[in-house]
Amino acid sequence: MKYGYLNVGVVEQGPAELLGRTVFTLYPHQSAFVVPADSVTAVPDGVPSRRAVLAGAVETAVNVLWDAAPVLGDRISVVGAGMIGCCVARLAHGIPGVDVTLVDLDPSRRSVAERLGVAFAEPDAAPHDRDLVINTSGSDAGLRLALETAITDGEVIEASWYADRPVTLALGADFHSRRLTIRASQVGAVSSRRRATRTTRDRLALALELLRDPAFDALLTAESSWRDLPDVMTTLAAGPSSDLCHTIDWGDA
Length: 253
Prior knowledge:
This protein is an alpha/beta fold. The chain has helices at residues 49-52, 55-68, 83-93, 109-116, 140-149, 171-177, 200-210, 229-237, and strands at 6-10, 22-26, 41-42, 75-79, 99-103, 119-121, 130-135, 150-158, 181-184, 220-225, 245-249.
């Protein structure tokens, strides 16, 4: 089985303008592979190769924020401090006057939030009256919390992927009485707010430029050789861990 799909490597054969360049692409992990030239994006100078692996997560976060359209001074909560939630929080943190809180069940995420420059709260202590709540938790409990903590007439951006799992919500409570809105965000298409002027390549190129920010290194929590993949995958499959982005090094393959 080929694991994973986020890759950063060096072009060994291809167009002259890409030859020898460090690039990002989506492909199952292996030591070498052939892809169309237009499926790779050059990594900007100043972005370390390992950090560039986060391009897919940051690209998703860019799309989420294009959908969410926060404004100056907004109070924002991001429910779920996984890779996507952390990327959303860091990008939103850059908007002047914005108050961002990451909400997660795992108290160890507090230190990650501190490195990202945002506040942290466990669900029971999550702030209320938020202008915008973005759910990236992948859980119906996270979506319920988002509805409970949004302001009246507020908006919840649902950026989770549930696959075939059903979601249960108490829509007779906060949702109707406080006239809330739930809006989906999904990376498969550029946000409708930017679709007329941005392509998916533009969005990915922007994500890679944003990765000049060293704060994103907080998400790089572990690294293993490709030789250890069977053990790594067994550990990951066993249940939740403190890892955010566990990178695999193919350098000696």
